[in-house]
Amino acid sequence: MGKIEENINIILEEIEEVHNNSYFSKSEVPKLVAVSKKQNENKVIEALNAGQTCFGENRVQEAEQRWSKKLQIFKNLELRLIGPLQTNKVSQALNLFDIIETIDREKLAKEIANKFNNSVKTKSFYIQINTGSEIQKSGIEPTQSDNFIKYCMEDLKLPIVGLMCIPPINEEPSIHFALLRKIAEKNNLKKLSMGMSNDFKEALKFGATSVRIGSLVFGERN
Fold first, then answer.
1. What is the CATH code of the structural domain delimited by 3-216?
2. pLDDT tens figures, 87-109
């Protein structure tokens, strides 16, 4: 068994264990999103061969180069965009990703709504919330989240299914996971993309439905 397969199996066991001991144990086991951005090609192939089917990418261009051929070979793949999306890349993204997790501003939401139809590949979206109100970070301010979610769902008619956040590095992540969950519940959204290599167990305790893990799966990037 390869190192990456071993890593994936360990993480899946940990996800299941934490989830089963959490308040959310009655809901389905959260999904592992393997963050393949900037990873070595051989490592990604190893993860695919180990049975990993869900991957997160940060950039449209890079993802297209990596996945366009693989999508024809490996069936059941789920690709998620977990990095910022530029408005001029919306058409490309809608035809590559199953889920876009990073709607983070009105201009982008409008552009997606303009290009969204039944023939695109993307079937659902998450809104990124800037739970720490960090100037350098993308995302909707928590105080504006209810209005923005309503705008995307009711005015733009976008299939918003969940929320995503990246807590500030120097703060206790649980505060941010609790806040994201609260906003989701208030707006009747079921999916929560939260938790990364260093804090995913904490995120699971707050009801994460998917965790985005890179270094624990693939090792540190070169």
1. 3.20.20.10
2. 999 999 999 999 999 999 999 99
